[in-house]
Amino acid sequence: MITRLLRKFTSLNRNRMRLFWSFWIFSCLHFPAADAKSLSYSDNDTMMLFRGYEDTLKTLQYDKISEHSTDKEKLDANRHFLHVLRSALELPGSIHYPFDSLTTIGRITSPDNQFRIITWDIAKNDGTFLYYGFIQSYNHAAHRYILYELNDKSAEITDPHDAVYTPDKWFGMLYYKVVPERYAGKTIYMMLAWQGYSSIITRKIIDVLSFNDKGEPSFGMAVFKKPPPGSRGNFRRIIFQYSANAFMSLTYNSKKNIIVFDHLAPMEAQLVGQYQYYAPSFIVDCLAYKGSGWQYMADIDARNPSNSEDKDYIDPSKHAPDMNKKEHDFDAHSLYNPDK
Q1: Which domain holds residue 233?
Q2: Does a structural domain hold residue 193?
Q3: Last-in-domain residue among 83, 99, 115
Q4: Residue 235 or 304, more confident
Q5: Is residue 52 part of a domain?
Q6: 150: which of 41, 55, 56, 170 fits an S-S bond (Cβ 3.0–4.6 Å)?
Q7: Does 35 have pLDDT greater than 90?
Q8: How far apart (Å, rounded) are the C-alpha atoms in residues 326 and 147?
Q9: pTM, 2 dp
Q10: Are residues 42 and 169 in the same domain?
C-alpha cells in the first residue's frame, strides 16, 4: 500500500501544497510510534517514503532562492521547505538517507557518525542573510539519533567571538568541513564555515561543536591557546572578516593536522579595521594542534626551509595563491590540498 501510494504521488504533476499535506498526514498515520530498531532505512517502504519527501523538497528548494523577488515570498517558501524537511528528518532511519539531490543545502556527517548537520541560507534583498539548519545527534543513553533545529539569532548577537551557543540560540553559518579532535578527555569537532555577513563583508569562521553527556550540542569552546593576531579575550571561535569581493581560503590539512588559511590584510595601511577593504595576501598562516589547544603559526611557508629530506617543503614563490582566481579558495596552494 505504501509503495502504491508513493508511486501515485511521484507520478503527479505536483501541486506543492497538496504534496506537503499529503506526506505530513501519511507519515502521521503510518509511523505513530516507531523506533530506530523497528524501522530502518533499508526497508523498501521506508526508502520509498524518503524518496517521496526528497522529491517534494526538490520542488520546494528553488522557490526559496530563485522564484521569488521579495523577502516575504522567500521566507514563506522557506517555511514550507523547513516544515517538510523537519518531517522527513524526524522519521527513524533518516540519518542514513543522503538527500543528495537537494543542492541548496549543505550536509556534513562527522567521521565517527556522532552527528549530521544540515545548513542553508536565505539571501535577503538588503544583502544580509538568514540561516537555518538541523543537527541529528546520537544519544548513547537512548540509543538513537535526536533531532535539534538550529534557530539563527545572529541579529541579536553583538560580540560572537567569546560566547557559547545552543541550537535555540545559534550563531548562523554554513558549515563545510568537520575536524574531530580530542580535547580534555573528550571528542570535540572543529567546524569550518562560511557566513555572508553583509553585501560588503564576508566571513570565514572556525567554530567548535561539542556534546554533553546527554548528547545535546553546543557551539563554542576556549580551545584557541594562541589565536591569530587581533584576537582578544578568551575566544571560543575564530572569525575572519574580509571584502565580499575577495576570496579567502580556510581549510584543513589532514597530513599535518593543521587548519590552513590565507593571511588577511587591508588594501592600504590607513584602512586597518575596515574589513570591507581586507583581502588575502600572499602569506599562508595556520592553526596547529599542540595537545593543549590550537596555536597560531604565521607565514608557515617561511618556517619550512628547503631540505631534500623534507618532502613536504613548499616553495612559496611557486605556489602562492593567485588573488585573481576564485579557484584558489580550495586548491591553488598545495597546503590547501594535502593530496597534491
Answers
A1: 159-340
A2: yes
A3: 99
A4: 235
A5: yes
A6: 170
A7: no
A8: 36
A9: 0.77
A10: no
Cα 336 to Cα 173: distance, rounded to the nearest angstrom? 21
> C-alpha grid cell for residue 189?
569537532
In a shared domain, residues 192 and 320: yes
Whole-angstrom distance, CA of residue 182 vs CA of residue 315: 32
Sheet containing strand 106-109, edge to edge, reads: 106-109, 115-123, 129-139, 144-151
Q: How far is the C-alpha of 160 from the C-alpha of 164, rounded, in Å?
A: 9
**In a 10 Å sphere around its CB, with 0-12 CB exposed, 13-18 middle and 19+ buried, how is residue 60 labelled?**
buried
Structural domain total, the chain: 2
Residue 44's pLDDT is 81
Mean pLDDT throughout 107-131? 95
Cβ–Cβ < 8 Å for 299, 263:
yes
Tell me the HSE value of 62 on the side-chain side, using a 13 A CA sphere.
6
Do 176 and 294 share a domain, yes or no? Answer: yes
Identify the domain boundary among 48, 70, 99: 99
Helix (H) or strand (E) holding 50: helix 44-61
Question: Residues 241-265: what's their mean pLDDT?
Answer: 95
Between strands 238-243 and 224-226, the pairing is unpaired
pLDDT tens per residue across span 97-113:
999 999 999 999 999 99
Q: In terms of Cα–Cα distance, which of 192, 183, 188 is closest to 217? A: 188
